[in-house]
Records
---
Amino acid sequence: MPVKLALSGDPAADKLLSRDSLALLIGMVLDQQVPLEWAFAAPLRLKERLGGRLDAAEIAAMDPDALVKVFSQTPALHRFPGANAKRVQELCRIVVDQYKGKADRVWKSAKTGDELLANVKALPGFGEQKARIFVGLLGKQLGVQPRGWEKAAGDFGKPGTFVSVADITGPEALAKVREHKQAMKAKAKADAGR
């Protein structure tokens, strides 16, 4: 049974994320400083703007200014289209150079959770927390579970939680994740005021 991710709120975009590893990586890269639905719908819009193909080698080889123009078309693919076009192009170069153009080799090549985390952290746009979230998403929703993946994912690998994109399986889960994030922001604000 194919995996059905539910991250963008758009069935066509979610279908692409579920079937195309590069689209999923691009969505994760873009998931910062914009609503997550915007970030995870962007790979489909990018594919459409690139003539119906989402190919790591083609994106890696594009003129950087041309890619920025693609990202900047209305509606922009991100709040910061220039910086994120650069990030996505660098991601694609790494996929081509280190993973033979196959985005899923980022995780399929990992024998342990620590190796998986290191692979993801080496990608542009993936800091410590986002890398752990992605390891959690891979383990919880895509069945990518090398030995030690839960430890590598940290809190984002725990079952039954609603703390990140790793836990979003539909509208109800999204609401719970948003509720958790709002509570964490309120707590941080209260702690800062003390």
---
Amino acid sequence: MKFVVIGGGVIGTSIAWHLAEEGIGQVTLLERDRLGSGTTWHSAGNITWKPLADHDASVMYAFETITRLERDLGLSTGWLQTGRLFLAGSGEVRHGFEGFDKAAQDRGVPARWLSGDEARRLNPLLDPGGLEGIWLNPLSGRVNPADLTAAYATAARRKGAVIRENVTAESLAIVGGRITGVATSLGFIPADCVVLAAGLWSRSMLQPLGIALAQWPCEHFYVIAEVAPRLPRDTPSFVAPHELVYGREEVGRFLVGFFDENAKTLDPASLPNPFSFTLLPPDWEKIAPYFAAATRLFPPLETAPIRNFINGPESFTPDGFPLIGRVADIDGLIVATAMNSSGVTLSAMTGRLVADLVTGAPPRFEAGLYDPSRFADRARDLAWLATGVSSIVSAGYLRHNQ
């Protein structure tokens, strides 16, 4: 069989590796620019275990995969296990964390509740006053997204995959309801199976076929502040769901990100072409209330110079779950897109799930959660879609962290 993967981000490279490992055919990955040049490069790179249907097995497999890449294959991902401070700003949020803690104890995960003084020793910027509780989850850390993407790509090449950068996939060829190949800037590439992992450009790629994917991009923000004291590299990351903020150490500085309410949507067609290693303009007004909440938790932020403002588009779905699976009515076409700002976290799971779907193996993960047809014709309604993704950015964040 001949496989073509469209998209050379962290999702596409993971899929290429997992498919190549199966040894069932030739795998070719197409990236229109350079690997990781779309949205992967500006990811925060956090990976945190949570006992949720879409995170539990997926994150444990991510840890397993990182170990394979680094220990068994000798490839760097930049993985650093730091643990994460879960900051409860309300009784409701603490109740959710108590459920997490019970699940952790049942599984033998050495998570624990911290006193304010213990938490401040782990992050001297934190003011624990007013918090309802602080829970330390040790199964958390971060990777370097560029390194993880390169590791997937290298592992794929070692298994025989061909990776072509600076090649644009222009259209899909369908004959008799079956995929036959991809028209590219270098000519036609025949294929028995095409996996579309083009991120926020996936929807427009399928529109000429009359297929509507229920994904739409939002502007997504984080800043990097020059704090004093500088943070040690192994400082635990944090999440504060009630305040819709998260963060971690970044080369001694402090990265603080936001999952804002009424997120700003944008039309992918409005982005410049090419949109590679590119950001959107800062929007201080949009993040102001969330940054103010972060300064109440970490007072030194109030006077810390902001060195970087990252505003990069991310694709979301109206229910907060990605789109992974076969496209109905077209044999040989699979999508893996709309990761809801969790592409790094879900990249290993996505690669494994796509490989299982292709080989017919019993899926290791719950494929029904990600069925791309679950929205049916509602995906054609752009007003409904934009409203849904605008609200899910914050609502999904609360749901996944309580």
---
Amino acid sequence: MNSTGYLRRPLAFSLLVFAAACLPAAVQAQSIDGLWDATVTVNNVSIPFRIELSGEGDKVSSYFFNGDEKVNPSTQGSFHDGLLDLKFASYATELKATLHDGTLTGSYGGGPRNAYSFQAKRHDPSLTAAADPPAPQIGGAWEIQVKSPKGESAWHFLVNQSGPRVSAAILRVDGDTGTLSGAYKDGKFILSHFTGERPVYVEVTPAADGTLQVAISSFHDTQTLTALRPEAARAKGLPPPDDPAQHTKVKNPNEPLHFSFPDLQGHVVSDGDARFRGKVVLINITGSWCPNCHDEAPFLEALYRRYHDQGLEIVALDFEPEDQLKDLSRPRAFIQRYGIDYTYLIAGQPRELNEKIPQADNLNAWPTTFFVGRDGLVHGVHTGFTSQASGAFDVELKRQIDNEVAQLLSAKAQTAGSGR
């Protein structure tokens, strides 16, 4: 190569660098890669959360965060001329926003009637670190006193604390809120959660009498409740949170639990079908709209894969709003997201739950699972499902379900037949 050849490459590279440096700042800033500090506004309350974006053109993806865990990835996304469009098929939701002067502004939801206003700016680590030390110590277990529509008198409030920073979860009979993350600021702990679903904003104020005032804002409502340590609640004679294994029962334990509903192809499947005879069957009340059902689905699929060859069947009875019953796009995406291989049936609308499952008593929560033995009879019912946010409760629940299934499978097949 001659001497001019050696000169051309560095000169060309320098020209490229110079040209890039001369581009307008607005053009250079069009990349959306990285972490963003975002909010959605729900019932006039601004709920902060983090979201991670990456890609360009028609290949944009995103993740929400449940604590430090990446969750709920987008299933489709694009970014053109400052317009961001992300779709989340398993929730049938969409995020649409415009980038202007470093701020994303738009909406998130399942349509104009169910959309939250959305805003996001580049993640600022100094905001994450901002807190007021020293903070009161509130770590550990609490019980929130409540009168819930499901008949509960108390919820678990589980708090992990490191200095002024807190991660927590409210655990109801139907499941938990996901991880509530935040810190101590201006005399109270400010916590929030949003992962594309179940938006929650919580202010926790320690009181002089050793209780906590817990102000909870969600898409349902806003309410301020009192939390006590479990021992203090028992000393006052207050009832504990509902036992998920006792909340729902069957009216006649000597009668099989019947079902007969179509699958996604329209083929009717019934409890009397030969495939269920002499098997252990988990009958799972679910819905693709239900966040706690999303928590449960991967666990059930893993359980099915582990025990199916030993005689386990799982039947999901999905109750969907009327708009989803028209094309079943969200249930299909739900099945695909979690790789569900067990039987999945479309049972009706949520308001029809007790009409469609008339043998159950106090059936009012998603999810709920009936444990049917080889004899065709219900041997137990469990209401709700936890996520990792519930810590030891989550570990124990999964252990109990695994043990119950193993015990039912150990029953000899010749005892079957009285129910199915």
